[in-house]
Amino acid sequence: MFTGIIQAKASVERIEHATGLNRIALRFPGGLLDGIQRGASVSVNGACLTVTDQDNSLAWFDVMMETLRVTTLGNLTEGAEVNVERAARIGDEIGGHLLSGHVHCVATLTSLETPDNNRHLCFSVPPEWREYLVSKGYIAVDGASLTVAELTDSGFCVYLIPETLRATRFGSLAPGDVVNIEIDHQTQTIVDTLKRMNLAPPADQR
Q: Which residues form the Lumazine-binding domain (predicted)?
């Protein structure tokens, strides 16, 4: 499990392409890999990956075919930056919301505005996932726990403060860029339960 609080940006050091998977090496900032072991889980742009090897500040991950299909990790290039968070431990402060690291879909950045000390980003989400978006509800974008500021016809918008821009890769996003989305599991459970009971309101009333 993860908290959605991005701990750092790591850089893609190397990518090896093999049958059915990509093997990627990430360079982590000093100290973030202290005490990590092979088999540990790390959120990389919101996708839960397993450490297969580690050497000082470098960690290797195998990204399987299904993960490459449903996430943006197949589009990574050497030198790119990614959001990273190590798995939460019992007793850790939950500053965001609980995440599984299982990406539901990808979304496209459709617009970007930069009012003073803010950044306003709007994303387009595949139609089948829009029913799980709730104004002022939780959403995970590339592994970061964010609050949905408002809903749009095609998705949702968020506001980012300078600290979020500093700590994540969001400061370099431009319209047309694609991100990983994990919807809030509690919201998904409630909506799906109401649908099974034929109690869900029409989409235009949510």
A: 1-97, 98-194
Instruction: State whether the Cα torsion 128-134-135-136 is positive or negative.
Output: negative
Query: Within 10 A of 88 (CB to CB), how many other CB atoms are there?
Result: 19
Query: What distance in Å separates the CA atoms of residue 173 and residue 119, rounded to the nearest whole number?
Result: 11
* 44-101 per-position pLDDT tens digit: 999 999 999 999 899 999 999 999 999 999 999 999 999 999 998 776 777 778 899 9
Question: Does the structure show a pLDDT above 80 at 103?
Answer: yes
CA distance 99 to 126: 20
Beta carbons of 44 and 32 less than 8 angstroms apart: no
Does the pLDDT of residue 160 top 90, yes or no? Answer: yes
Length of the chain: 206
**What is the Cα–Cα distance from 184 to 119, expressed in whole angstroms?**
22
Token couple for 158: 């968020």
Which domains does the chain possess?
8-86 (2.40.30.20), 105-205 (2.40.30.20)
| SS3 (DSSP) at 44 | strand
Integer Cα distance of 125 and 178 in angstroms: 10
Whole-number Å distance between alpha carbons of 24 and 62: 7
Determine the Cα–Cα distance for residues 39 and 46; give it in Å rounded to an integer.
Answer: 17
